[in-house]
């Protein structure tokens, strides 16, 4: 029975699907290529969420946390200023809390050419 | 693969389920069957549930920030407190606090502990996939489901203890027989409630088979079937044999109860995974 249980848990872990994205859209869009670093990142969520951390990593070695100090309420739209970190792939990881108490997180990326 | 805070949350939720359901089950069974001693067991599991409740809440903060600092970040914990996660924590702390208080009181204490255990169980109706449906009926069904599970868990340790001692074996047979009569009502309710919630959450056969959530649910059902088979063996073979004075039956019953515990722990572990990392289709 232990073997069956372990096999099942491993199997389920392997097929664990990512959460349906609570995001409607981002600007820049996931996978987009832009000529210069945008002045801000925009998030458009399907439901109200309170963003708790947004980290941007470029070329796997430089990462910064975006300033969320002006966003203390649950909202569907966020526009966060971002500094120019040069060309490369910008990986954005965000975390937040839904009004129902569910923690949510996701990632997207865009390329500055 | 979930990150470290996700894995820690699964472990903490597992401890929470074991703690709350075992503590509540212990006092439910003590009240119904007038069983003593129950205090040490109730105290242990209620304390486990209390610590796990606080840990699950605190780990919520770490998930929000992605680092250990979130566990004690006043802003993150305050944010969680303002959502149903905070409401569930209040129910757990108050419920388990009452249960523990009752343990240290006299005769009326058991009633207070039963009330506390029921309140702690109700906390699960405030967070999670069932709560998301905002349906009073579903919350009621979940509460029935959990009370029936707690009742089942609660009988295991006392029954094993009674069956282990030659002097108390007749009592084990009697309690086992009485439990079997009550379980003939609570177990079908447990299954019906679980089936209904599974149907509402998944809604289709393809979702049951084709998603991680559905597959975890199938694994849970397999363990429930194992549990039912063990319970049927107890009710139809070992308890009647114990009643008839068969010594071998006591050993078989003890073995069967140990296997029931394993199956229940497996079911609670899968539930912790279901509620922590797997999303509904």
Give me the count of strands of chain B. 0
The secondary-structure class of chain B comes to mainly alpha
Q: What integer value in Å does the Rg of chain B equal?
A: 19 Å
Which class do the helix and strand fractions of chain A yield?
Answer: mainly beta
The biggest beta sheet of chain A is recorded as:
7 strands, mixed
Mean pLDDT of chain A: 83
Helix/strand order of chain A, N-terminal first:
HEEEEEEE
Secondary structure elements and pairings:
The complex is a heterodimer of chains A (113) and B (281).
Chain A: H1 2-15, E1 23-27, E2 32-34, E3 40-58, E4 62-65, E5 75-81, E6 88-98, E7 103-112
Parallel strand pairs in A: 2-7
Antiparallel strand pairs in A: 1-3, 3-4, 3-5, 3-6, 6-7
Chain B: H1 4-33, H2 39-65, H3 74-81, H4 84-103, H5 109-122, H6 136-164, H7 169-202, H8 205-210, H9 212-243, H10 247-276
Account of the 3D structure:
The complex is a heterodimer of chains A (113) and B (281). Chain A has 113 residues and is mainly beta. Chain A has one helix and seven strands, in the order αβββββββ. Chain A has one helix at residues 2-15; strands at residues 23-27, 32-34, 40-58, 62-65, 75-81, 88-98, 103-112. The model of chain A is unreliable at 1-19 (pLDDT under 50). With 281 residues, chain B is mainly alpha-helical. Chain B starts with a helix and ends in a 5-residue tail after the last helix. In chain B, 49% of the residues are buried. The A-B interface holds A 1-2, 4-5, 8-9, 11-13, 15-20, 50, 52-53, 55, 93, 95-103, 105 and B 1-2, 60, 63-66, 76, 79-80, 83-86, 88, 127, 131-132, 211-213, 215-216, 219, 222-223, 226, 259, 262-263, 266, 269-270, 273, 277-279, 281.
